[in-house]
Amino acid sequence: MSNKNNLVELLKNISFLSWLKKEDGMDSAHWEKWQQENEENRQLAADAKMLKKGIPFKKQQVDKAKMKASWHKLATKLDESTSPQATIPQISPKSPARLNWLKIAATIAIIVCAVWGITAYLNQAELVHHQTDFAQHELIYLPDGSEVVLAANSSLSYYDDLVEKEERKVELIGEAYFKVASQPAGKQFMVDLKDLSVTVIGTAFNVNSHRENSIISLLEGKVALNKTGVKTEQLLPGQTAIFNTATAEFDLFNNQTNYWMDWRFQKWSFGDGMPMQEIIQRIEETFGLSVQLEDTAILAKKASGSIAIDNQEVLFESLSYLLSVDFKLDGNTLLISQKIEH
Amino acid sequence: MTQKNKHLILWENMLKGDLVALEALYTLFHADLYHYALKITEQQNLAEDAVQDVFVDLWNYRQKIIGVNTPKFYLIRSLRNQCLKLLKKQNRLTDLTSANPFEISILPEELQLKVDNQLVKKAIETAMTKLSPRQREIIYLKFYNNLDYEELAEILDINYQSVVNHIHKAMIKLRQADVLQHFKY
After folding, report:
1. pLDDT tens, B59-75?
2. Domain span at residue B117?
């Protein structure tokens, strides 16, 4: 890949952009290390920084009186032009006194409307909704300063008056990585899942609720997992909890955070060996495909190492080599078969 | 409420025929739009007319407008087309076939500088004139109006990669001319 293509890709990479924005942003350790790997990376980072900074323009001061005059000039043009929805009251020219009175009434009404209108615009607590498509990520900055990377085929909702609430609650369907800003006293950040809620104490963690059993991995800080009225479990950094819906129990694992969280770097880390079942599940979640196996013996295969996932075609090619299987895409169905040896 | 959400709520209410929302949008964006129109046309009256035309059309054709996520981006794109139309009427376009049939200047007085020094300003002015007209327009739109790369690609009818490349080349030229150090961020 040429240097320029790399720059184009980097400027789309939300984890990288977050690191550029604040030197201590999420995943900073990963990008610091990447930068020191070689001269090319160092140069790329410097150029990307230069592009993000750009050149600083002075902003024009707005002259309010001129602005108002300019709007009035426009308003007259609107009345003259035929606007299909505008309802201009027709007043008979017979009684001038009545006309004057109507004018005053209309002016008052418009002022009242304007004041009410603008206040209403500012006071509504709006539901903010983010939805990602298959094979797409989105970086979301929450009003309290927290950052969220929303994984493919997932949605995040919250009310925009979040910061004023005691429970700063967001609702997640699917998977996301959270870097939660430290909360002032008396405020709590919470993530609601379908059957669990995660209470946060200044932290970076990953939640996957695509599946029947929700998976929560903690990178730093502290989180408490609450199953309403049933269970509470504290997670320590480096731990992953899988909530078993059937038994209402949490299973805890250590040293699996890369395994569960590296998707945000556009890669999957397989750890000591990722079972075929897990790989299939991820392909289905990330690309919206339905996987069919030609031979159930394929389920016994495992992958190790790590693999780039930003290009579906390249991913299948690498997996094909790694697992010695063949992929055949037919519409939304992915057929996996044993590799035929020549 | 985030800025972006506020703009969208105003936009949707305007589309439904709310004149108060139109006034709020006009008040919010007039300064930036006029600034851009003046850069393209270099005539105050024509710039003001172009901005007003955009809003008159917006109001008259609002029932036909769909799928706008960023009001400011929509307005800037309409404004650029309107300016070209008005300049064409005056026969003032240099070359109609060129992608940038007008010149955009970026003056040191418009930038935030660490020092107020004639030599520094002269160096910046020279460096800016050495950029291509297209490079100047892109860095102006990007850094004055804070549009993202996809939006720039659509306004200028070029692909995403070209936008990044134009900005990259422009910034490298400015770095080579050693003027970046004078900017106050």
Report:
1. 999 988 888 888 999 99
2. 108-182
